[in-house]
Amino acid sequence: MNGESIRHFTDGRVPDAGIAHLFSVENRFQARLDVEAALALAEAEVGLIPEPAGETIARAAQIEKLDLDRVAAETASASHPLMPLIEEFARVVGREYGGWVHWGATTQNITQTADVLVLRDAHRSVKDLLAKVLRGMSKLAEASAAVPMAGRTHSQHAVPVTFGFKVAVWIDELAAHTDRLERLEDRLFRVLMGGAVGTFASFGPAGREVERRVANHLGLGTMPVPSRAINDGIVELVLVLGQVAGTAGKIGKDIYSMMQPEFGEAFEPIPEGTVGSSTMPHKRNPQLALDLLSMSAQLRALAAPALESMQHDHEANGGMTDLLESTVSRATVLAGDILTRLDVILGGLELDEQRMRANLALSEGLIGSESLMMELGERIGRQKAHEVVYEVAQESAVGDEQFLDLLVRNATVSAYFDRDEICRLIDPRAYLGESVTIAQDMAQHARAVADRLEFSARTAKPVPLFLRETAAATSASEDDDADPVASGRIAPAARTAEELLLVGL
């Protein structure tokens, strides 16, 4: 059985987020070939390598042409993350121009820039999922804007809210995270193309121009200082995804609690045939809410290694680079898994409004103590009113008499309000504040953010697939008798594997 075929037992209940496959070996290797192709084209354009070399290298940059089994075997033998791929790629390019592959670059120039390409695709998928989730929240907030329920602080009844207000809180946070994801793009989507330590020494005076052209080919930005020790943009992505996970975990905790029989207020969708327990046939477990809790914890925990990866010593530390590579890929995949589950939950969430009203009445009016206190405070002062209502409320909480009856008998309260007025003041349905308006406003805000994300996705300029375009071109045949070095078809003193390894370190 393929261990990757089912990563979690609930995967069958949710659609594929479309992110995990982006971090497959094949896709990451293709991204590295894309960067090598962009580098070769840029260098050919500025005259660092022969023009036909750039075109030939770009034309060959297709993962299907490489022997990946050979690459895997050589990786194990050479113990290097990129050199075996470069050597195999140079072999595919051919003897004439293979020696120009990876000219002037260091390993991290290729691997980190390639990972940024992968992250760009993953980032788009995350934003697409956020748009779906926000649209689902918008519908839910609007539909439940006026549905009263108990507001709870420290797990105890506080003051009444509406379910729509609860959703509005979720929207506010998730929309803010969306904004953060958009704002970090310029710091994240940049090429790292400065050579061994970021000084462009191996590219000579054309270094900055090579960097600019590579970035242009790939649709990325450039770094003011292309140091291998600078990774804050990628770290920032992990931290923002951690915030997304924090909000999703909070939502999962709310739904998990509300599904308890003692609450019975809201329920995630449970398809027919879903098994809750191998021994208790009645169980209807909050599986997806539990996923949100566990996956959120896992993603939030990645903030620490992401920050640790910034601890490069001097100009680069491969251990820190490797740490961030694994951390950001794990964080991005988890974010997709979380958002797909959240989307399914929101799309099928069932509310029991009758149970919400019943739970509001559990305290027999105590949840309306603030309303009464504020009204009484206008007559006798806020602090004195708090003392009076507090004493009555605590007596009701620990005794057998109802809050209403005790209030009616209280001399201070009864001096200002009769029984009907007290009933009105402690009625939770009459003390919702701006819950309805807030829910409606945030429903509109969620729609606006979702609309913006979807418009951005529709109008985004596609990155030119120069690799595929050049593949259609036919290279002119060279005279077999011509000197390949003199004609520029082979790099001067064609590099050996050992020399390539030195360039790639």
Automatic annotation (TrEMBL):
The keyword Lyase applies. Residues 364-443 form the Adenylosuccinate lyase C-terminal domain. InterPro entries: AdenyloSucc_lyase_C, Fumarase/histidase_N, Fumarate_lyase_CS, Fumarate_lyase_fam, Fumarate_lyase_N, L-Aspartase-like. The lineage of its organism: Bacteria, Bacillati, Actinomycetota, Actinomycetes, Micrococcales. Gene3D superfamilies: Fumarase/aspartase (C-terminal domain), Fumarase/aspartase (Central domain), Fumarase/aspartase (N-terminal domain). Pfam families: ADSL_C, Lyase_1. GO terms for cellular component: cytosol. Keywords: Isomerase, Lyase. The keyword Lyase applies. One of its GO terms (molecular function) is 3-carboxy-cis,cis-muconate cycloisomerase activity. This is 3-carboxy-cis,cis-muconate cycloisomerase. GO terms for biological process: 'de novo' AMP biosynthetic process. Coiled coil: none annotated. Its EC number is 5.5.1.2. SUPFAM superfamilies: L-aspartase-like.
